[in-house]
Amino acid sequence: MQIDSIIRNRRAIYPPQYNDKEISKEDLMQILENANWAPTHKKTQPWRFKVIQGDAKARLGNFLAEWYKENTTPDKFKEMKYNRTKKKADKADTIIAICVQPDPSLPEWEEIAAVACAVQNMWLSCSERNIGCYWSSPKSIHAFGDFLPLAAGEKCIGFFYMGYYQGEAPKGERTPITDKLEWISE
């Protein structure tokens, strides 16, 4: 079945591998619409996405790099990481801030799990379209509200970097499911 192949071939593809081909707005909207159909307890649909493109990518890269510099002790600071953080945003065609707006009547972990399901739908949709992507959760995500205002109670839980890429996706590896499975019948 096609879905089996898409699931098993989904991989993290990182910004240095992206090329300059633009992701169409139609594809982005379809990917986000697929995210919108993730399972959600009590239909709260807690996912919130902020699409970052154009000059805003460089602003985000600068924000993340400066946050790293300001929040890293001099003995741990690495100029290479600072520069890589700054440039990573520019290499992506699109960056989506992954946010959650939890319903206070539900456990927060359930709302975050629903957002993770939405991101998996995005990831599978990208894989089907040969768009590289990956979910990054840097330490700076808790400060994202300083970059872009968030609604009351809304939290950023990561960034979804996207871009077309050249070549083959890396091969995946998994240990057998039988190593993680227990049958209980009585």
Secondary structure layout:
Blueprint: H1 2-9, H2 25-35, E1 47-52, H3 55-70, H4 79-91, E2 94-100, H5 108-128, E3 131-136, E4 155-164
Antiparallel strand pairs: 1-2, 2-4, 3-4
Largest sheet: 4 strands, antiparallel
In the sheet with the most strands, the strands line up as: 1-2-4-3
Taken as a percent bin, the fraction of beta residues is: 15-25%
Text of the CATH class of the domain at 38-166? Alpha Beta
User: Runs with pLDDT <50, length 5+?
Assistant: none
How many helices does DSSP assign? 5
Average predicted local confidence, pLDDT: 95
Q: What Rg, in angstroms, do the CA atoms define?
A: 18 Å
The arrangement of helices and strands along the chain is HHEHHEHEE
Specify the overall morphology: globular
CATH superfamily descriptor of the domain at 38-166: NADH Oxidase
Summing up helix and strand content along with how strands pair, one would put the structural category as alpha+beta
Termini separation: 33 Å
How many runs of DSSP E, i.e. beta strands?
A: 4
Task: From the 3D structure, determine the CATH topology of the domain at 38-166.
Answer: NADH Oxidase
Q: Helicity level, as a percent range?
A: 25-40%
Task: State the CATH architecture of the domain at 38-166.
Answer: 3-Layer(aba) Sandwich
